[in-house]
Amino acid sequence: MSATRRMSRRGFLARMAGRAGAALAAVYVLPGRAAGATPPSERVTVGCIGMGRQAVYSNVRFFLGQDDAQVVAVCDVDAWRLDQARQQVTSHYAKAKRSGVAGGCVAATDFRDILARADLDAVMISTPDHWHVPMAVAAARAGKDVCLEKPITLSIAEGRVLADTFRRTGRVFRVDSEFRSHACFQRVCELVRSGRVGRLHTIRTGVPKGDVGCPPQPDMPVPEGLDYDLWLGPAPAAAYTEKRVHTPRSFARPGWMRCRDTCEGMITNWGAHLNDIAQWGHGTERTGPVEVEATGTFPTDGLWNVLLDFHVRYRFADGVQMIYETSHPYVRFEGDAGWVEAGYGNRRVTVSSDEILLSPIRPDEVHLPRVHEKRDFLDCVRSRRRTIADAEVGHRTTSLCQIGHIAILVGRKLRWDPDREVFPGDDEANRLLARPLRSPWTL
Question: pTM score > 0.85 for this model?
Answer without folding.
Answer: yes
